């Protein structure tokens, strides 16, 4: 399965349902995303909704469902934005992602972050170390995951000894379909450690949501330059909550579902033309990938409208305005 051409602006769908979902719900949205022509379908990696008292929330395991989608979809790329590194050990996660990548024919991407939702961890019995330690663990996990995948390609044993994780002479590493391994996405709003870790490991830096996107990308570029990496080797992405409608009633109905006031403040709420213009402004700020954040996962007509009235206009007009770079896989 070929990856998208570098340099073109990509529109992707990101699912984060307010009340959780069943696999049937997730599959229907992923297939609608594929049918509408979008580049990828991503989901969040959560076991609890924003409201911890919401007893109607239906948790699903992110990578179990992505494994199902790997077999039940055909074209769209798949991934998590972003997975919580606190949920799974590095050797296990490397194997899970490699398995799903093979199942998909090479369409999986690994988004990984420190994890942030402390109440969620408590509710499911998961350790939640202090912030500094979570960053330390994330960095070690990425060392191990990429090391295992790389050793699968050159048939060499892999060992690692860190403060939090160790690997002892692994001679049977997981083998993803993509070479040297699936794209890695790292992002967030942190001014220091997030861009530094992304500079080392990321094929895509996600500038998250809100704030000065251009400055966030510049901080990432400086982190790359500090270690001698060409910043143009990585894509730059952003999340955009969306409530798009053909008329005011549709817009209002879809806007009511957006999760929080912060999300609504940073959302594109309005006509297809307004959403297209907002995407163009993000491209002008340096983004070459936009994740359209969808909350009502049963509203498949929303996806169809975006695919018909936004996607074609973006792919025709926005890349030239963006002056998109041509990222390449970082040297090993």
TrEMBL record:
Luciferase-like domain location, by residue?
A: 17-255
Please give the organism: Saccharomonospora marina XMU15
Stretch list, region Disordered: 165-189
Which GO terms label this protein's molecular function in UniProt? alkanesulfonate monooxygenase activity
The record's Gene Ontology biological-process terms are: alkanesulfonate catabolic process
Source organism phylogeny: Bacteria, Bacillati, Actinomycetota, Actinomycetes, Pseudonocardiales
What protein is this chain from?
Answer: Putative F420-dependent oxidoreductase
Q: Where is the composition biased (Pro residues)?
A: 173-183
Task: Could you list this entry's UniProt keywords, alphabetically sorted.
Answer: Flavoprotein, FMN, Monooxygenase, Oxidoreductase
For this protein, the record's SUPFAM superfamilies field holds: Bacterial luciferase-like
